[in-house]
Amino acid sequence: MWKAIQNKQLEGRKFRRQHSVNNYILDFYCPDEKLAVELDVHGHFTVSGSEKDRLRDAYLQTKNIKVLRFENKVVFSDLGGVLEEIKLKFNK
C-alpha cells in the first residue's frame, strides 16, 4: 500500500505513514484531504476492537479527519479497488 501512495503517486496527494494525532497513530494520513486510511487485522473485528475503533474514529471526527478502513487481506487481493475507494474520498 505504501509503495502505491508515497511520493504523491495517488493523484498528487501527499500521504504520511504512521502519523500521530494526540494518542493515536494513523496508518496513513493525507493532511490536504484530512483523510486517514487504516488497515485492520483480525483484532479489530472483535467486540472490544470494534468499540476501540468507534471511539477512535469519533475522536478523529472532532478533528475533521475522515477515516477509511480496509481489511489487510483486501489490500493484498484488490489494491486497485482500495486505491479507487480512497480517491473517491478526495475533495475534487
Describe the structure.
With 92 residues, the chain is α+β, with helices and mostly antiparallel strands. The chain has a single domain (2-87), classed as Endonuclease, Chain A (3-Layer(aba) Sandwich), CATH 3.40.960. 39% of the residues lie in helices and 27% in strands. It contains 4 helices and 4 strands; from the N terminus they run H-E-E-E-H-E-H-H. The chain has helices at 2-5, 47-62, 72-77, 79-88; strands at 16-21, 24-30, 35-40, 66-71. The protein has a 4-stranded mixed beta sheet with strand order 1-2-3-4. Helix 2 (47-62) links the parallel strand 3 and strand 4 (66-71).
**Silhouette:** globular
Residues in helix, %? 25-40%
Number of domains: 1
Total of DSSP H or I helical runs spanning 4+ residues: 4
CATH topology: Endonuclease, Chain A
Runs in which pLDDT lies below 50 for 5 or more consecutive residues are: none
Structural class call reads alpha+beta
CATH superfamily placement: VSR Endonuclease
What is the residue-averaged pLDDT? 91
Strand order of the largest sheet: 1-2-3-4
The tally of beta strands, per DSSP, is 4
User: H/E element string?
Assistant: HEEEHEHH
Give the C-alpha Rg: 13 Å
How far is it from the N-terminal to the C-terminal residue, by CA? 22 Å
Biggest sheet descriptor:
4 strands, mixed
Known CATH architecture = 3-Layer(aba) Sandwich
Report the β-strand fraction as a percent range: 25-35%
CATH class descriptor = Alpha Beta
